[in-house]
Known about the structure:
Elements: H1 5-17, H2 33-47, E1 52-55, E2 61-67, E3 76-82, E4 102-103, E5 106-108, H3 116-132, E6 140-145, H4 156-162, E7 170-175, E8 180-185, E9 188-197, E10 199-208, E11 212-213, H5 222-235, H6 244-257, H7 266-271, H8 277-281, E12 287-295, E13 301-302, E14 305-314, H9 319-330, E15 335-342, E16 345-346, H10 352-364, E17 368-375, H11 381-385, E18 390-393, H12 405-408, E19 415-417, H13 418-433
Parallel strand pairs: 3-6, 3-7, 7-18, 9-17
Antiparallel strand pairs: 1-2, 2-6, 4-5, 5-19, 8-9, 9-16, 10-14, 10-15, 11-13, 12-14
The structure holds zinc ion.
Zinc ion binds next to loops.
Amino acid sequence: METTAAAEVTDICRDLLRIDTTNTGDADTTVGERVAAEYVAAKLDEVGITYEIHESAPTRANLIARIPGADRSRGALLVHGHLDVVPADASEWSVPPFAGEEKDGFLWGRGAIDMKDFDAMMLAVVRDWQRTGYVPPRDIVIAYTADEEAGMQFGSQFLVEKHRDLLEGCTEAIGEVGGYSYTVNENLRLYLVQTAEKGLDWLKLHATGRPGHGSFIHDDNAVTDLAEAVAAVGRHRFPIVITPTVRRFLEEVSDALGIELDPDDPELAVSKLGPIANLIGATIRNTANPTRLDAGYKDNVIPGRASATIDCRTLPGQAESFLAELREIIGPDIEIEHKHQQPAVETEFGGALVDAMGAALRAEDPGARTVPYLMSGGTDAKAFATLGINCFGFAPLRLPPELNFAALFHGIDERVPVEGLEFGVRVLDRLLRNS
Length: 435
Ligand SMILES: [Zn+2]
């Protein structure tokens, strides 16, 4: 019997879910990326696709393969997925998180939607091509990365810095997080294509004062100064800024739903969106959330220094004005230390590849309509975009209307519908054949 991509995608996804690739952000407790990369390698070996595996550190494996296209003068399309997953606490789950169980029409496990589903689709599609002798219209580069879930340093960033040659000629990329459906009604499903990501700035605020005894009158206390700054930042609401992606999103959704969504009153517009309001709420303004505090070493000693971590997320083009605003909120005396920064990315929702996404979806779901969206988090796209690659989040999935998809990301009982997976692999195959 002929093996097709749709027939084996579920088995591949199940196998990947059974490989624990937990990325804790700590080298000693992060596991499995090498094992998963070797699994992918064996599947490529079976059909005769050549690849390279590069480790950024022991076990931090990244795999890249290039499928030569018919017209090698055209820019290549990068298709990428990360192999690592965030930790899962088995006691909170209704199934073991690394068993790859199938029940009620779903495959359950950590990584089922983030993003071993797409990892499996990529593999199933290129294996099918190789078996049948199919040659895509242009070069397709597939990349499996480590470390997406903890800063990308050992994964996509490493590839971009040390193995740029393997990404030579890539003009566009598809990866997470986008391409999934939001059901409006029986005849209409919106598929959100990610065309932009917010930037990230994990920074520390430091206040410096005069150290002293806790029993004295003291008017230069670093803890007090820091606490005031942190409270001011935490309570501040940054102004609404409508980026081109969000404007286009509101226009498209407004048209699709047949409701009036005023782009100039985006808060009201977003509140009308029901379940996807959560997804969109953080994409109309910069945010700054205090996440950690650090000061003092003894109950009766006033420390000379106090520090806080702020998780800041900025809209495309807003990094500088955001910092100016932050400085105004905290005043001139607090020091800012940038711990980890990643710029926002934004690409245009248009062109042949975007058209092909819509066509591939409609061929499998006549009620499909693509809309662009800006994501408040970040992905490997940030690293690949530094090479000038136009990055899209498009890991196609048709979801049952009642499923709270957003809650499954890094969530308990993460699962992917088997039918959605088979749908996804057919859409991906069509897209890549027409890219
Ligand atoms: Zn992910």
